[in-house]
Amino acid sequence: MIDLAGTQNDLATQFGLADEVTDTDAPVSAVFGDQWEFIQENIDNVVERMVYETDEGPDLIPADDGLGGADNNLANVPREDRYGRLEAFINEQIAPEYDLVLLDLPGKEDNITINGLFAAENVVAPLRPGEFERKQLENLERELTLIRDDEDHDADPQLRLVFATMVNQTTNLAEKFANSLETEYPEIAGTPVSQTANIGNQQGEGRTLFALPDDELYNTGERARDSYRELTTDLLDRLEER
């Protein structure tokens, strides 16, 4: 997993690594800079030092405070060189070591996000019920189309899975939102994920739903975990069909 979604380091917190990554000497933001090649050649094991093991299986490259500056600096890079830096890093340094790479991207259209979309072959869009999230999905679809239509490269990212998350099943809004996704995206809509206090409670403990024993899960937590498992199986099946 590569967290590019901001300096909050949500993924590091979720996996109990927040204290370990506060002063990393190998930040992922360096990948987007002009000195990245020099850094690789002159700092031993720089990529290995980016990667942190979690107690739940996946390895994590956390976000860092330099991502905002990296985004600003990319604005001064010629367009033909601006958006392929993350893809090159993944292809050369990460993909040979892992079967699957997950990118957590910012929910805004900046240079870091577009780098992520260029690098991604498959895009997953979890959405909270609401009009703002729908607008973000429309913006995402437009951005993916622009990337695919750009003749300067061969990137071909596709929206593979969209689903409603943090769904309060007691409200009509959430039900209508989930149903509308199934209607408008019948081939890629996934099962909705219930809102549950288990997620927020366990984030402070540095654990995910999957680290909780069954007897510590609320009913909503059990439903959410089952939904995530179903979504994972669904996505992997779709990727295998490609």
Describe this structure as you would to a colleague.
InterPro entries: AAA_dom, DNA_Partitioning_ATPase, P-loop_NTPase. This is Chromosome partitioning protein ParA. It comes from Natrinema versiforme JCM 10478. Residues 40-150 form the AAA domain. The chain is mainly alpha-helical. The protein has a domain at 1-120: Rossmann fold (3-Layer(aba) Sandwich), CATH 3.40.50.300. It is 45% helix and 9% strand. It has helices at 10-14, 36-42, 46-50, 67-74, 79-82, 85-94, 111-119, 131-149, 172-184, 197-203, 219-241; strands at residues 2-3, 52-53, 59-60, 103-104, 122-127, 158-164. The strands form three sheets. The protein has a two-stranded parallel sheet with strand order 1-4. Strands 2-3 form a two-stranded antiparallel ribbon. Strands 5-6 form a two-stranded parallel ribbon. Helix 6 packs across helix 7.
Explain the layout of strands and helices.
Elements: E1 2-3, H1 10-14, H2 36-42, H3 46-50, E2 52-53, E3 59-60, H4 67-74, H5 79-82, H6 85-94, E4 103-104, H7 111-119, E5 122-127, H8 131-149, E6 158-164, H9 172-184, H10 197-203, H11 219-241
Parallel strand pairs: 1-4, 5-6
Antiparallel strand pairs: 2-3
Helix pairs in contact: 6-7
Organism: Natrinema versiforme JCM 10478
Protein name: Chromosome partitioning protein ParA
InterPro entries: AAA_dom, DNA_Partitioning_ATPase, P-loop_NTPase
List the main descriptive attributes of the protein structure presented here:
single chain; 242 residues; mainly alpha; Rossmann fold; two-stranded parallel sheet; two-stranded antiparallel ribbon
